[in-house]
Amino acid sequence: MTRELSLQTTKLLSRLLPPADTQAFIDIRRQIHANPELGFEVSATSTLVANLLREWGYEVHTGIGKTGIVAQLKLGNGTRRLGIRADMDALPIVEATGLPYASRNPGRMHACGHDGHTAILLAAAKALARTRDFDGTLNLIFQPDEENLCGARAMIEDGLFERFPCDAVYALHNAPGVPLGTALVVAGPVTLSSDVADVTIKGVGGHGAMPHRSRDPVAAAAAVVTALQTVVARNVAPDDTAVVSVGFIRGGATHNVIPQSVTLGLNVRAARPETRALVEQRIREIVSFTAQAHGVEAEIDYRQLVPPVVNTVAETQLMAQVCTELVGEANVVTQVPKGFAGSEDFAWMLATLPGCYLLLGNGEGEFGGCMVHNPGYDFNDQVLPLGAACWVRLAQTYLVA
Ligand SMILES: [Zn+2]
Ligand SMILES: [Zn+2]
Residue range 99-109: average pLDDT? Predict the structure, then answer.
């Protein structure tokens, strides 16, 4: 089933973004789609973005967090400062859409819709520079390397919010399988944190026939894997969310040798900062005490990759108000869809500032319903005017004297 935007919504959008402009930005979106770049290596995309923004009168700052950009527009005497973020990077995937504007860079593909997110923010930037109907400071943030969860942090560590202070920061992502014209605006946790841990269990190697002369790290590792299953089941509340997965077990070489050590690779996710801390603490305790019970030693290298995205209440209410105006109350959903368990490095920005991460339905049709990171995925161009209108109305509503 495919769905078009309602006539009323289309009329509203065409007032904010004239149809000729919409087509121009769809063309830009497809140009970015055809020339995908990875990680921090988004120089062609960021050059295209910076040149357009300069043309429209923005003060453009490049090279923040390697290839990140901030474009600033100050109007009036208003003291409020708004940040809106888009991501620019693609994925190492061989595109299989067969579209006329499919990737020209073999093995690289815009399979997460960041081409769309960038074009959306550009479209909003042009509309706001033309109408000039806000009062305050608008900071448009275009970041690299979202997929490896490093770009937002790199920009923040490079002084993003000291150089361009914001009172709140917003971002959006398309949501395949969610109907076109549906906005998911959720107060509280939206995406999960993502952490990894390498657990090294050190025993004393020996002959498989004489286990009493060794300290077996394999038996201890097996006990650790089993005990880890209780971390979520016995510590996390039924209405909260966390995941602990053991992704690999490495150790040993042959049948008759008890190895010196075994390494476990863990992936840990949680919906709330407190749950994330609790899960880490329980993993550390279980690893340490289980090792002790088996007479072996354990070392844990625990690395926090990205916190959960947690939307703040007031900023989410404002986003919901803007979305309601554009798509109607019936199409604004305030709950995270079941089974939605991704991570997003915009979380670093929300760990610093209040704000909201918005999800817009990418549709349910052939491409719209195809999941992100799939070689058959494409961003739905009908989301472009809606996304741009969300940012235009947000800026006009937030930036008032
Ligand atoms: Zn992605
Ligand atoms: Zn993405």
Answer: 97
